[in-house]
């Protein structure tokens, strides 16, 4: 049964670039996280928002026309949440070779 699918488009063909911001938060509570999530969700260039464990707590993934456009988005986030955002790093994804939402699925389901 197919439960969902996603088309993987070559962004260079539609003049877009794929960026990720790895964001470290300052002692967030659940309400802070919801507000940040809601704020980021209002931008149509944002394609994924991911809560993560480890050094970074939050990732913003966007498909934009330029590095400058992504930087402007991050400035808006920092301006709106100055006490919440401790630090961030920006990554540009040059190419997605494969997208796998459940990489260990067969092994987990079989065992």
Shape: globular
Strand adjacency order, main sheet: 2-3-1-4
Number of helices: 3
| Helix and strand run | EHEEHEH
Layout of helices and strands:
Blueprint: E1 17-25, H1 30-41, E2 46-51, E3 58-64, H2 67-80, E4 85-93, H3 105-110
Antiparallel strand pairs: 1-3, 1-4, 2-3
Tell me what the structure shows.
There is one protein chain. By secondary structure, the chain is an alpha+beta fold. Helices cover about 30% and strands about 30% of the residues. The chain is built from three helices and four strands. The longest helix has 14 residues. The protein is globular.
Question: Briefly, what is this?
Answer:
By secondary structure, the chain is of the alpha+beta class. The chain contains three helices and four strands; from the N terminus they run E-H-E-E-H-E-H. 29% of the residues lie in helices and 28% in strands.
